[in-house]
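Milestone 3.1: sequence recovery, worked example.
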């Protein structure tokens, strides 16, 4: 999405506020102004009173994030806000929650719902009607600039988490937007001549139906999301904002979507194409949807009047159904800096951090034995709470890792650190074109002092990853290659010097914990095998430093698991060989349905850390698998039951996963696919029974020739376990 200045936002607010929201005449109350009238009646009544010019005005926004008000008819201006990690409001600060992929790492539907409710409160505190989220695109490749906004590589997991948060958000008076439709899964900002505006995603029908469509379809049919945002890119040769097959035939036709389709910011490319192709609202303003271009098009019959009416009807229907005409959205009783939101941000951060390595029980650190900790690395201070772009929100405060360890460690633990310059990887290229984005002498000095500090401490915590977001970097004309965020894919390698920093600190202190801030996997081949402990902290929001410290000292037992596969090498990723094969602006999804763990399994490649993997400070056992089966082979109902026991000495949460694989498929199918999961909290020695229901969708595949979902009668493996590669229980069912 395009970013705008605070002055533009305030100007738009002033314009919208200046409009008197009153009915046409004081002596009558139109039907559309009656809150008790049915939504369709109100919509039809108001639509009938609008001129064609007013209708055209209604289908374009006011820069940057408002819809057009109508003084004559009393139509209010509706406020939108970005922010996958919090309400991104240019004129106020906001609570910053962990990133979308971090929330997904919790595998906690209830937590996702809590997040939705909290975001609704934050929106009401600011008078926001529409949240431009959640992001439900796929984690296809580790370098994707917006991976941190997404929810992982598996469509079932992504859909389950998104539906939970959207249902909660919309039940509390704020409308959600399914972002961004479709296949904008990479941002080739660093590729010369190819951007997200020109990239043409080439994806076959079966792959669309099985991998990339399901989260959007679930938000439409299971969460009744109010809006869908069409993406910048082309899909199979047609821009998504004017792709009639995508927006009209599938979204509005097959899926029965009754809301409206808005463009991503400045993603509209053609008046007639977008008007006839299914776009309902151009944002942030009417460059193509305006009176000058659309009035003559309607008059000449190039765009039918009914098409314009349908767009306005969809917008009005959603606004009426959400109560935007009938009650103020701004709730002054909710504090802007809401303690409830802060508490949830901390709770989410505690559940989202994935413990990837813990050799020799390096963690948790025992305060009775560990009396000094060195907190080192570029992300120890001013720990990046967010990636950059439209997800970024200004915050009231943040606890970085250094502060968190000082708070949680207590008076008995001495904490030492070596400060790094905030703009260390953002040196202006103009100073020395082609030179490394950091000063080699300064880097040598920082590493030497860090190693000395680590050697003198009982334990070391080294914080690496991608540098602070663009909004935090003060250097003019900076080199942003080491940023992670919207608009450009990042490097697979860590910023210069970080591999060396980790290697040397690990060599200096055998009790070293590495903390990684990134939206996904990185090249850790130079240091991972020698590192005793590794926590993937993602972008943990404003309370991440405290949550991390609580995990390090054992006050919180880590429970998160990976929502994406992490490869040993870039070349191992199933999508890697298609990522750089760019010709004629085409991004070919040549891996098809074998993306993520499906591809690792199909290609028999061992990942570094498998999908669904995550360690705990306790242990669990699985047993007593039972399966109940009813229905026929075309409409099966299979319920999977099994027990999980906490066999360790600490309370903890286990994320049980259920996969399904067809034994002898007649068409290529993944060896197994996630079809159910449940987060289970257990006290030491406690046992609970997990029950997962599987319906027709768990066994079917999409047949593009027949244009339908099919189940091939035969044997299916039901697999339950702790990750995609840790299958602990198995049973075969026949359909």
């Amino acid at each position: 999405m395009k970013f705008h200045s605070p002055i533009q936002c305030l100007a738009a607010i002033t314009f919208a506020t200046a409009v008197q929201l009153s009915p046409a005449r004081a002596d009558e109350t139109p039907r559309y102004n009656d809150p008790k009238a049915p939504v369709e009646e109100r919509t039809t009544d108001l639509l009938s009173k609008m001129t064609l010019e007013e209708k055209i005005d209604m289908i374009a926004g006011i820069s940057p994030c408002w819809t057009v008000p109508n003084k004559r008819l009393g139509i209010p201006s509706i406020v939108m806000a970005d922010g996958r990690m919090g309400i991104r409001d240019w004129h106020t600060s906001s609570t910053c929650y962990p990133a979308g992929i971090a929330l997904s790492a919790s595998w906690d539907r209830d937590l996702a719902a809590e997040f939705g409710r909290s975001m609704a409160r934050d929106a009401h505190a600011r008078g926001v009607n529409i949240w431009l989220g959640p992001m439900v695109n796929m984690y296809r490749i580790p370098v994707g600039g917006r991976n941190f906004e997404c929810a992982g590589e598996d469509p079932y997991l992504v859909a389950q988490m998104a539906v939970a948060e959207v249902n909660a958000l919309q039940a509390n008076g704020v409308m959600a937007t399914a972002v961004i439709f479709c296949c904008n899964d990479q941002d080739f900002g660093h590729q010369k001549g190819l951007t997200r505006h020109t990239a043409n995603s080439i994806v076959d029908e079966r792959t669309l139906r099985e991998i990339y469509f399901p989260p959007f379809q679930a938000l439409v049919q299971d969460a009744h999301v109010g809006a869908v945002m069409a993406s910048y890119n082309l899909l199979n040769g047609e821009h998504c904002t004017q792709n009639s097959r995508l927006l009209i035939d599938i979204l509005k036709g097959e899926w029965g979507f009754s809301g409206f389709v808005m463009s991503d910011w400045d993603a509209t490319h053609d008046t007639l194409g977008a008007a006839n192709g299914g776009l309902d609202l151009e944002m942030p303003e009417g460059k193509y949807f305006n009176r000058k271009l659309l009035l003559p098009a309607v008059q000449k019959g190039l765009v039918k009047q009914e098409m314009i009416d349908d767009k306005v009807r969809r917008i009005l229907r959603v606004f009426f159904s959400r109560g935007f005409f009938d009650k103020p959205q701004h709730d002054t009783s909710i504090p802007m800096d809401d303690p409830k939101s802060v508490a949830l941000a901390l709770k989410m951060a505690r559940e989202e951090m994935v413990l990837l390595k813990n050799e020799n029980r390096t963690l948790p650190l025992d305060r009775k034995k560990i009396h000094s900790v060195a907190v080192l690395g570029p992300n120890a201070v001013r720990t990046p709470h967010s990636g950059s772009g439209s997800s970024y929100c200004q915050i009231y405060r943040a606890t970085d890792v250094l502060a968190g360890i000082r708070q949680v460690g207590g008076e008995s633990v001495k904490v030492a650190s070596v400060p790094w310059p905030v703009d260390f990887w953002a040196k202006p290229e103009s100073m020395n074109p082609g030179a490394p984005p950091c000063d080699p002498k300064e880097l040598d000095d920082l590493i030497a002092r860090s190693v000395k500090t680590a050697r003198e401490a009982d334990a070391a915590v080294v914080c690496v990853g991608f540098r602070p977001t663009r909004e935090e970097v003060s250097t003019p004309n900076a080199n942003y290659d080491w940023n992670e965020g919207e608009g450009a894919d990042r490097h697979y390698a860590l910023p210069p010097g970080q591999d060396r920093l980790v290697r040397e600190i690990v060599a200096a202190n055998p009790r070293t914990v590495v903390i990684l801030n990134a939206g996904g996997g990185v090249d850790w081949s130079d240091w991972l095998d020698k590192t005793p402990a590794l926590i993937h902290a993602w972008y943990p929001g404003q309370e991440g430093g405290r949550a991390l410290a609580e995990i390090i000292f054992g006050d919180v037992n880590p429970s998160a698991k990976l929502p994406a596969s992490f490869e040993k090498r870039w070349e191992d990723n199933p999508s890697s060989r298609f990522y750089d094969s760019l010709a004629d602006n085409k991004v070919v999804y040549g891996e098809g349905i074998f993306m993520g763990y499906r591809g690792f399994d199909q290609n028999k490649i061992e990942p570094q850390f498998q999908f669904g993997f995550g360690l705990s400070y306790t242990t669990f056992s699985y047993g007593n698998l039972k399966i109940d089966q009813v229905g026929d082979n075309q409409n099966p109902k299979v319920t999977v039951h099994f027990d999980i026991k906490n066999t360790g000495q600490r309370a903890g949460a286990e994320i049980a996963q259920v996969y399904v694989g067809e034994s002898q498929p007649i068409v290529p199918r993944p060896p197994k696919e996630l079809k159910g999961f449940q987060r289970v909290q257990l006290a030491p020695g406690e046992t609970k029974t997990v029950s997962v229901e599987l319906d027709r969708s768990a066994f079917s595949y999409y047949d593009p020739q027949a244009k339908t979902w099919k189940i091939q009668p035969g044997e299916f493996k039901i697999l339950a376990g702790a990750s995609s590669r840790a299958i602990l229980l198995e049973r075969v069912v026949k359909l």
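Residues 620-734 form a domain with the Immunoglobulin-like fold (CATH 2.60.40.10). The CA atoms of residues 32 and 41 lie 7 Å apart.
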